[in-house]
Amino acid sequence: MEHIRLPKVENVRLLDRVSPRRSRVGTLYLTATHTIFVENKTGVRNETWVLHSLVCSVEKQAAAASGCSLLIHCKNFQVLHFVVPREQECHDVHLSLQRLSQPVLCLAERHTELYCFSYKPNVDEKERCQEWDFLDLKADYSRMGLPNSLWKLSPVNQHYKVSDSYPADLFVPASATPPVIVGSSKFRSRGRFPTLSYYSKENHAAICRSSQPLSGFSARCLEDEQMLEAILRSNPCSDFMYVVDTRPKLNAIANRAAGKGYENEDNYSNIKFQFIGIENIHVMRNSQQKMLGACELRSPSMSDFLEGLESSGWLKHIKAVLDAGIFIAKAVAEEGVSVLVHCSDGWDRTAQVCSVACVLLDPYYRTLRGLMVLIEKDWVSFGHKFSHRCNHLVGDPKEVSPIIDQFLECVWQLMEQFPCAFEFNARFLITIHSHIYSCQYGNFIGNNQRERIELGLRERTHSLWSYLWKNQADYINPLYRPDHSQTQGLLRPSTAPYCFKFWRGLYNRFDQGMHPRQSVEDYLRAIREETQQLEEQLKIAHLEQEQEWSVTQKAVTFDKSPTAWALGNDLGLANTPQDYTGGFITSSPCQPKAPDGRRILLTQDSNQTSESNLSSGSDQESGIADVSCRSPLSTDSTRDPDSDEAAYSAA
Amino acid sequence: MWRMLCSDSRYNRRAEAPCASPATTCSSRTGRRAALGRFCCSSGTSMPLRKVWKTFWATPASSLMQATVKKVWKTFWATPASSLMQATVKKEYLNLQGRLLSSVKICTCSSLTSQAWSSVSTLHALSRPSDANLPDQWGLSSPEKHYSQMKELHDRWRLSTVNREYLVCPSYPPAVIVPKNIDDDMLEKVAKFRQGGRFPVLCYYHKKNGTVIMRSSQPLTGANRKRCREDEQLLQAAIEGSDKGYIIDTRSSQQALQASMTGGGFESKSCYSSWKRLHRQMERGKALQESLIKLVEACGDEYHNMDRWLSKLENSKWLSHVQTALSTAGLLAECVERDGHSVLVYGSEGKDSTLLISTLAQLIMDPYCRTLEGFLALLEREWVQAGHPFQQRCAHSAYSHARLQQESPVFLLLLDCVWQLWRQFPLALGFSEALLLRLATEAYASNYGTFLCNSDQERCVLGLKENTHCLFQALLRPRERDCYSNPLYEPTELAIWPSVHPQSLQLWRGFFLRRTPQARHLEEVQEEIRNMVIKWGKLALS
Question: What are the catalytic residues (chain A) (predicted)?
Answer without folding.
Answer: 343 (phosphocysteine intermediate)
